Amino acid sequence: MRLTERFGLRPGADRFPSPHSAADLNNVWLMTSEYGRTVNPTVVYVARACLDALMGWVGVDGMVAAIRNPALLAAIDQHAAAVRDELGERITDAPALAEHARQVHAAAVAEGHEFPNPARLDWAHAPSYLVRLVAVCALAGVADCL
């Protein structure tokens, strides 16, 4: 079994991997950190892989478009502020960021949104769920979660 299959990493816009797909594995790597949080290295690895896939899917194209479009940059900044408010202290945790992105993606799928090719998208009129995903990518980059 390939590593990507084992951890649920499947390419495609409609198959964004769950950052907790590795949580079902039987492993004994759980340990308590000095900060009182439980850390599972496998979950962190999968979350970073999810964020990296997200960056490749929409993050790079969205951020390049934002450099050219101040209104888009402002929208990404507003979405990033909303994510920071929602996640609080967990803003630097790869699993928390990946889970937020997964929830945004799942909500968009549930509402029946089509996922356009980001390379061909008119980012000036990008749907808010894609702008939110780009904001998650920006936060992941700042938090060194990629």
Describe the overall structure.
The protein has helices at 3-6, 41-68, 70-87, 94-110, 128-142; strands at residues 31-32, 38-39. 56% of the residues lie in helices and 3% in strands. The protein has 146 residues and is mainly α. Residues 1-14 and 20-38 have low confidence and may be disordered. InterPro entries: DUF6401 (IPR045647). It holds the Pfam family DUF6401.
The sequence of SSEs as H and E is HEEHHHH
Computed Rg: 15 Å
Described by strand count, sense and barrel closure, the largest sheet is: 2 strands, antiparallel
pLDDT < 50 runs, ≥5 residues:
1-14, 20-38
Assign an overall shape. globular
Class by helix and strand content?
Answer: mainly alpha
Biggest sheet, spatial arrangement of strands: 1-2
The number of helical segments is: 5
Please bin the fraction of helical residues.
55-70%
Total domain units = 1
How much of the sequence is in beta strands? under 5%
Question: Kindly state the mean pLDDT as a whole number?
Answer: 80
- CA-to-CA gap between the ends? 24 Å
Total beta strand runs: 2
Task: List the defining traits of the structure above.
DUF6401; single chain; mainly alpha; globular; two-stranded antiparallel ribbon; 56% helix; 2 strands; 3% strand; 146 residues
List the helices and strands and how they pair.
Blueprint: H1 3-6, E1 31-32, E2 38-39, H2 41-68, H3 70-87, H4 94-110, H5 128-142
Antiparallel strand pairs: 1-2
Helix pairs in contact: 2-3, 2-4, 2-5, 3-5, 4-5
